What we know:
Layout: E1 11-13, E2 19-21, E3 25-26, H1 33-46, E4 50-52, H2 60-70, E5 82-87, H3 96-107, E6 112-117, H4 131-148, E7 152-158, H5 162-171, E8 178-182, H6 190-199, E9 202-206, H7 218-226, H8 231-240, H9 253-260, H10 269-276
Parallel strand pairs: 3-4, 4-5, 5-6, 6-7, 7-8, 8-9
Antiparallel strand pairs: 1-2
Helix pairs in contact: 1-2, 1-9, 2-3, 5-6, 7-8
Amino acid sequence: MSPTSFSSSPSVALNTGLQMPLLGLGTYKLCGPEDVRRAVDAALAAGYRAFDSAAVYRNEADLGKALRELLPKYGLTREDVFITSKLGPKDQGDKAMEGALRSLAQLDLGYIDLYLIHWPGTQGLPVADERNPGNRAQSWARLEELHGQGKLKAIGVSNYTPAHMTALMQSCKVPPAVLQVEFHPRLCQPELRSLCAEYGVCFQAYSSLGKGELLADPVILEVAKNCERTPAQVLLRWAVQQGVPALPKSSNPERILRNAEVFDFTLSDADMDRLSALDCGHRFCWDPSEVA
């Protein structure tokens, strides 16, 4: 895949050589064929070339169908889009191969560009259960197999802590291409970012808007007012200006378009510093630190 494949969307190079767009459409809570199709249509029109799904979102089949039907409308092919999905915690361990093959079949797009282990734990096991590390390692070995077969072009992990990442790097044959975690001004994750830089792993953000709560933060509102942008655009720009890919999610076509308008302005160093100074280690989503 050439870097020009995503000409309308700036991208970052993964350690596999793949180019991954800096901005993708998150599809969490996007369900039902009509809603998925409407969001995908709006996203393609707005220039999005990456779409992030997961087995637990239960929308892989609808996403794949929408893309197969809509790509020709925009003169695009399968190779022009970057599709991410994730292994569900219920398939962690000995069911990982089955789970990944199910994602491939549900999406029905020939291959998946990036496939992640969604969570370091295993559904049905306590977080501190000592079987979790072995299950993670088993899942990773299966993803390595499918990567070797070309069915998963890149593989990675989500919600891993520094300890989880270090253990994976010490045991893997194929290093992860991406770590996808919660990242926004109140959770800057410096230790994880440093580890990713050291290991050559792309650090990717989810929940850039803090489940919407950050849109009312006084500092973010002030920065947005001063640069005549929406708070969401400021939060997304804060990430991509650091080279961190982001995945804003919305089912609203107008908001999908607005969220894509983050490459035609720059935040000043002072504004970047003001936003980063909000870091207090606050999570709006799940905390994986207790997972053995």
